Structure prediction request, 266 residues.
Amino acid sequence: MVRVAIDNDIYNRVGETWWDEDNPLNLLHGSMTPGRFAYFQKILGERVGRDFTGPDFTPLRALDIGSGGGFLAEQFARIGFQVVGVDPSPVSVDAARRHAAASALEIEYRIGVGERLPVPDATFDVAYCCDVLEHVSDLDAVIAETARVLEPGGLYLFDTINRTRTSKLIAIKILQEWRLTRVFDTPIHEWSMFITPAELVRVTERHGLSVGEIVGLGPRAKNPLRLLDFVRVGGSSLSYGELSRRLDFGQIRSTANSYMGYAVKR
Ligand SMILES: C[S@@+](CC[C@H](N)C(=O)[O-])C[C@H]1O[C@@H](n2cnc3c(N)ncnc32)[C@H](O)[C@@H]1O
Prediction:
């Protein structure tokens, strides 16, 4: 199924500065990256063990599908994975390469799309796709490709946005439509492209990936008044990186807005 278009060119327009705390894309960094990664590390510990090397002592290989500025690629590289990142945005790929080099991390970045991954069959122990599935034009093709490049028994880690009334309010109205609160003035998301957990389970199962768990992903900050921080961001008194840290994203019970989880290739 080919889905409707959204403004994916934003990753070229502002992708040069993913790592700059004043870039709205940095919302994915402050606490989102550590929050998602803490959950993935827990799953890796349970499913793979703590030693990320293969039987011949070479590092395990991870594929980052839609690697953006490299926030998660760097996390995986730091714990010993050999990481390949794939993203269609040349500007983002360039920014990710520069940041990895400045951080003395060896990560290979390639330009490409999830629908046609530029890597051979059965080459990765782990593949992950975070905040990307809701951006792709052909979800079925992306999952089919993910299954193709994973080794049998390989681990698929993901997070994405659920299609609910809550996500319509938060991701569409608050984050991109309402003038006082919006972070993006362009349609980076389209509600109909969000994916329910049941839909994701169906498509992954169809391609030989068995979902093991789905949990909620969201802000853990206690005070809902922190939402007012969004307004203050407009007045530029708070960086997006700092806003992200204050919202303290991570594993929560509710899957009403975003969720994350894992699947295993049969
Ligand atoms: C919201 S960003 C997420 C970046 C990164 N995964 C993270 O969580 O920090 C979405 C990314 O998906 C990429 N993207 C868009 N369409 C894609 C596709 N068809 N295949 C792979 N990546 C895609 C964009 O270029 C962008 O870098």
